[in-house]
Amino acid sequence: MGGVNLNLEALDKVTWPAACPACGHQTNETDGGLTDVKVKKGIKTSFASGTPKKVSVRLCARCISRVSRAEKMGKFGWGLAGITFLLGVLHAPANQLQWSGVGFGFWLGAILGWIGERRKKSLVGLQPTRVSKDTWHFRFKNQSFADSFLTANKQFVKNE
Ligand SMILES: [Zn+2]
What we know:
By secondary structure, the chain is an alpha+beta fold. The protein has one domain. The chain has a four-stranded mixed β-sheet. Helix 1 packs antiparallel against helix 2. Zinc ion binds next to helix 1.
């Protein structure tokens, strides 16, 4: 996974190439669909305000359907964990067997939720991090997307 530092104050200055960050295929305005990528903060910016929480990127039809499957699994998992947790709190289980059921449902849900989130992240293959007030770091999985991203934003690329 390659990365690049950009000299930018705000993400809205970034030009997104017409390509899928997951597989590098060309996309256009009507292809596939948008997915949200969480924006990370660096050590220097962890308490800074004004950093967007997420950014929408367009994936091709094939990748967006894989991502939405991973998202569904994640949501199902967290939902299951939440419901079994509530059940455990509201109806204090009467015996060992019920306790095991609640515990099993909770952990199964939490694990599925975690796997779903990890899978989505690795499928999208793009991670923007705000390193400092005017520096953003981008990580890419796909080399051809990384190349077109660099070309589209070359005026911002930081030479260390
Ligand atoms: Zn794709």
